[in-house]
Design brief:
The protein is mainly beta. 0% of the residues lie in helices and 53% in strands.
C-alpha cells in the first residue's frame, strides 16, 4: 500500500489550499480514507474522514465548516479542501487507510499558515 500526499505549502491566514492523496496497492473504493495532521510538538490528530463511496463524512470540531474531504474512486485519490486557514492549522498533513488491520500512512505534506 502506498499513499502519496501533495498540495501543501505556505499560505496566508484566510487563504485556501487543496491537498491530494493518491493511493495504490489497495482496492481504494472499498475503504474509509482519513486525513490527519501533526503540528510541531503535538500528537497526530484526525482531521476528516470519508466513507468508501463518499456518502458520509466526519470532521474534527476545529475544522468543521472550513475543510471539506472528498474522493474520486476512479482516480484512487482523496482530497482535502481547506478554506479560511488559520495559523493553528499549520501542520504536516497525512492521509491514512486501514487495510487488513494495519494503518498505512503517507509521508505527509507540510502546510504552513503565516503572514
Amino acid at each position: 500500500v502506498q499513499l502519496v500526499e501533495s498540495g501543501g505549502g505556505l499560505v496566508q491566514p484566510g487563504g485556501s489550499l487543496r491537498l491530494s492523496c493518491a493511493a495504490s496497492g489497495v482496492t481504494f473504493s472499498r475503504y474509509i480514507m482519513s486525513w490527519y495532521r501533526q503540528a510541531p510538538g503535538k500528537e497526530r490528530e484526525v482531521v476528516a474522514a470519508i466513507t468508501s463511496a463518499g456518502g458520509m463524512t466526519n470532521y474534527a470540531d476545529s475544522v468543521k465548516g472550513r475543510f471539506t474531504i472528498s474522493r474520486d474512486n476512479a482516480k484512487n485519490t482523496v482530497y482535502l479542501q481547506m478554506n479560511s486557514l488559520k495559523p493553528e492549522d499549520t501542520a504536516v498533513y497525512y492521509c491514512q487507510v486501514r487495510f487488513n488491520g494495519v494503518n498505512y500512512w503517507g509521508d505527509g505534506t507540510l502546510v504552513t499558515v503565516s503572514s
